[in-house]
Amino acid sequence: MKTRSIRFRLTAWYAGLLGAILVLFGIFIYFTLDRFLEAGLRDTLAKEAQTIGETLLHDVVQNGDDYVVDEIEEHFAPRIMGRFVRVTRPDGTVLYQSGAPHSGQFDPVAVTVQQPEAFPSWREEHLPTGGELLVYGVPYVERTGTKYLIEAGAPHEQVERVLHGLVLSLGIALPVIVAIAIGGGYVFMRNALKPLDEVATTAERITSRNLNERVPISPTGDELEKLSVSLNRMMARLEESFHHINRFSADASHEIRTPLAIIRGELEDAFQSPHVSPELKQTIGSALEETERLSRIVEQLLEMSRLEAGETLFERSRFDFAELTKATVDQLRPLAEDKKLKLSVDVGKPVEIEADPIRVKQIVVNLVDNAIKYTSAGGSISVSALPVGRMAILEVADTGIGIPEEALSQIFDRFYRVDKGRSRQLGGTGLGLAIVKSICAAYGGTVTVKSAEGQGAVFRVELPLASS
Amino acid sequence: MRLLVVEDEEKLAQLVKRALAAERFSVDVAHDGRTGLQLATDYDYDLIILDLLLPALDGTELLRRVRRSRPSVPVLILTARDAVADKVTHFEAGADDYLTKPFAMAELLVRVKSLLRRTTGTRENVLRVADLELDRLTQQVRRAGRRIDLTAKEYGLLEYLMANSDRVLSRSMILDHVWDQGFQGATNIVDVYVRHLRDKISDMEQKLIRTVRGVGYVISDEDPA
Hints:
Chain A is α+β, with helices and mostly antiparallel strands. Chain A has helices at residues 6-56, 60-63, 65-76, 78-81, 157-205, 223-272, 278-309, 321-338, 357-373, 405-408, 420-425, 432-442, and strands at 84-88, 94-97, 121-126, 132-141, 147-155, 317-320, 342-347, 352-355, 380-388, 391-398, 446-451, 457-464.
């Protein structure tokens, strides 16, 4: 599970929030219920005491003490109800005292004897078993003027037991509720965010070569649909400007070609003329040389814009990259021999790839030709083409002048030259490596370089193997 | 032989006309598609050189219409458009060859001659420059009667030079014709092969292959002026 995913974070937030709310709610219920039960208990006790006074003690002189005792036992059944009831005479003797309750929560005899007072009062007796006995005492003056004290009590534990039950059920219910919320929330979020995953997958796949692709739109009318639509609009704009740039460089190349053809024709014409002096001929020759280089630059720029426009998608065939590499290196061998360089090629089993062989050959030619150009006599160049994993790896390693570190990152840029004078002298267009990069990218591959100044260079091309 | 050049760039048309005239062809020039079509249907040309982006009637349409009345006249397309799709379209429409601007005039002449040879069916089997002799049937090369062994590339290079003797051929033309595609990056390989070839045909005594600075190479028995 990705802990940074929105799905995870939102679910965690919701679960946390829900848990916190439930805990607060539980605390609120606890205290409310506590107060409510306490009030209810007090109310009951007060009514009990009052009822005893008004209905039983009222006529105690006529009915006798025993009547009162019997009536209390019959009406209130204190032992069964777990209640404490006591009626005390003014002289401190007890008229009635409830027996020990069945629950055994308290011992009525142990409850301190009080003198009747003028006002009703509440007190809490500490029980030896722990907990408290809530006692309500109310003075009652019967008809003859005798002042009795009626006490009604109940252990606090009755309230606490209910509260305990509440805490217990909340303690069980809360984690269960939160767990259900997490599970449900996670599933719900996953479904809700699923289109996002699809959008991401598509967006990931889109490069300059398949800008015509669009992310899927689920017509839900929600924010995700809005996002997909916006993304698609953005890609449409990108596609348009990309095409615009490509069309521009293609058009520009075309527009340059005709005047270039005329310049070249005129120069060639002048060159053939018998009236031209040898000095002028040399000048014309030099101009022709530059014209040819300019033509090559235009050619290569156009080639690159075509590669980037994805034209290569239609020119693919399956061939053995190792064989092509070996054949190409052998064709270039005279160049190496001419410079007294050792040129070795290491190919083994066939390396099948799917691409345009002419363009792939261009990769080999450009890299090996560069290696030959930048390695001085006596040096060596080794070329290998081998399958590694799911890629075909071409390596061209030389013992040449190498590339300074600050140039490494720019070496594949168009028109970048490490040593401006030298490269131009060697007749380069400044586009050779840029083309290699474009071709690699067009067929889903990469090109990288490792080098240090004065220590040679290793160019490494990776192209995907043909699926078998 | 009579050739038609349909090209709207007047300067370029004149250059092409002059170069072809120097080879003793008679050349008509049309600057727009409609005139071009008129001429092409009225006269029986031996070859048509056709630009594609033309005013009045574009080259592709012109080619289709010409093919209806003259199915066999060789047509060489001369254009700044060189996307593969364009080439395929025009070969399908009946073009015989395709040359992209900017081009070397020598290249145009080579192609024109080769197209004319294809239709007239003439091809010399033995090429000669001074005392150097190349037999296309046996692929043997002799200098002053002495046999010279050449590798396949050296032979190809020499044949291309000799078939176009007295004409300066640029390095990229040589690469295009003698090497396979994908070699445009390495023009100096031509220099190396020319040097090998010179060694083998003992070119030191009487120089046949000359380097023309900035342009390329030419084989000729004339001494340079």
